[in-house]
Amino acid sequence: MAHHCLVLACSMLSIALLSSPVSSGCSSDLLAVYKLSIRTFWDEEQFPKQYPEWRPPAQWSKTIGFSHNKGFRLFSVGAIAGEGVKQFVETGDSDKLDREAATNNFLDAFIAPPIASGGGNTSTTIFVDGNNTKVSMLTKLVPSPDWFIGLDSLNLCQDNHFIDSITTEAFPLDAGTDNGFTFTSPNWPTDPQGVIFQISSQYPTHPAGSFHYPHLDKLPTLAIIQITKEREYQLSDEILIKNSAHDKYKYEHVGNPIKKVEVLDFVPIEDTPRRKRKLENSPMPLTAPSEASIKHNKNGPNLAAFRSTTKSDYYASTAPEQFLKKKYSSSKMRNINRVVFPGSMNSLSKGDLYSNILSSYPEIKRKKRKLHGRRHRKKKRKTEDCKVSHWGSWSSCSLSCGIGEQVRVRKIEKHPKSRGKPCPPLREVKWCGSARDCNDGYFDW
Known about the structure:
By secondary structure, this protein is an alpha+beta fold. The chain is built from 5 helices and 19 strands.
């Protein structure tokens, strides 16, 4: 057990040294653009134990990361994972992580596309400045209980300058939130939650572990993370006189004063608010404008067809007062008028027209229904749902070493009646324990 603890302590120390290079501070007016590249080597030849080939096959989630200062921490080996990290490494969902990031102070949040197979690569762009020189990121192994790779506050500033490039090997990390030992283990929450630790070929010591290769001193390379500087900028001296809201985001290339100053698109730039238009106080006219005051459009549509001379049985005037003077001549309409409106339509008044229309419909006589006897209503029985007691306390774990079970029960206080809701389950079981609780050498058989 002491040997495993020593290996874990050395691994944690190497990660801590890698995540925080010696830095004496970069100037606050510097800004650098880096390319983050991740190359993965998770294949069946290198990792044959329980290698996932389907539902789902081996793959990697999207990469989420931040550039920040020392006041921000995404995760840390030896510490308990936050709710956002826990959700992401277990399910690949980043909703909680996004909400947590909204309350934190960082310069840039970046995302790299997922890798659709165990071996592949992905990349994205990172922005850092003199006040935010550290980078943290994580990527989940899919499928896995809560395993991921990542960087914890890697500092890109050394000796007052941004480094040109850094390459590091990424080791598998366990978030300490799930007890699963294999890639496709069911959800076994760790209770109480453990700390984040590095997975090695000999730790955890359970023989069923997907990364358990005790004959190897070191796991094969799982992934390589490379960060390369693409460009570096410095605040322009002209910014001392800020003529617009965009000026505070202008940078110029370091060592290239000839190149024009440009605005970097990663910074959220907001335009100056528009001036509110003054409302005219002149009252709205209540009468129509005179014809002389209306300006006619010379290039307007040709309305000559609507202003032609009148023809037989049709008045072509488009004036509103002339609209009702339009008339049409049709033999079919005359036959219908003789049936519906006997006599001359022009000689009938408005009331007579309504009377003729109503009299043309037959009268509908409604028969009253006679109620025979009294309606006998059946009395409905009152439904009663099943009622159960509160859950009892959890029993002790069935195993002191490895994965066991805990049970709790509840009782029925009232059975359902008259199609009431049935009783819910009266017994509940959950997983408990961990292989980390076993003594050294327990699984050496």
